[in-house]
Amino acid sequence: xxxxxxxxxxxxxxxxxxxxxxxxxxxxxxxxxxxxxxxxxxxxxxxxxxxxxxxxxxxxxxxxxxxxxxxxxxxxxxxxxxxxxxxxxxxxxxxxxxxxxxxxxxxxxxxxxxxxxxxxxxxxxxxxxxxxxxxxxxxxxxxxxxxxxxxxxxxxxxxxxxxxxxxxxxxxxxxxxxxxxxxxxxxxxxxxxxxxxxxxxxxxxxxxxxxxxxxxxxxxxxxxxxxxxxxxxxxxxxxxxxxxxxxxxxxxxxxxxxxxxxxxxxxxxxxxxxxxxxxxxxxxxxxxxxxxxxxxxx
Length: 298
What we know:
Elements: H1 3-12, E1 17-22, E2 27-30, H2 32-38, H3 42-45, H4 71-78, E3 82-89, E4 95-107, E5 110-120, H5 124-139, H6 149-166, E6 170-177, H7 180-187, H8 189-206, E7 212-217, E8 220-226, H9 230-245, E9 249-251, E10 254-256, E11 260-266, H10 273-289, E12 295-297
Parallel strand pairs: 11-12
Antiparallel strand pairs: 1-2, 1-5, 3-4, 4-5, 6-8, 6-11, 7-8, 9-10
């Protein structure tokens, strides 16, 4: 099952109603919870626009929201999440009071649509709980349970801005597992996944509170170290390298291990997020070229 299929299957089976729209407010996803609460099947809804007034949302004063004052539309316009209690029109005719949370969807900092999650107002507590689950799905890698690329890009951007505004130091490391393709080809992807999980847990136990290590993609990871100096950056990255080297998994009577190559750097006044990542990436390749299982700082 692909990651996208996994997410859709999980969302489809949420007890709460969940639906997605694009920037034109065309409905692109409608889960079983939405069918249960509204009475409308996905076949009746998908491809239509929320302003087609199918649900005919009104507020406490009877104001029609689907044409004016729609929380979902406002979230698309200004990029802000919203919460509200409204009354939707059930297919059977009755009004149902629901608690609604609308959240914009971003891709490379551009709004590409929005998601609305809704429950019967009496089920608000359950909605809040599942919004946290949605956040976990959106911001964390499901295999390693580490922050994912989306999370670390946002985290890094905030700290780069903090450096430029306040001068607070920042370190970055780009980490790559050595010969991982060969490892996968030799021992299989299931064993490779176990190694990724082992490495991730090793990373997480080795850094300071406030540091963030995220899975960048495949066998690549990025570590962000706020308020660190050159000596501290050297110490923590060498520690990461050493701990991975000393870690093993046991498979069919064998002890299997990997090493990592690391490139690490401190932010400079000229840096952007992209330039900082690029420099750390290039330094990591210097570690590869220098024999692997080493740290290059620059």
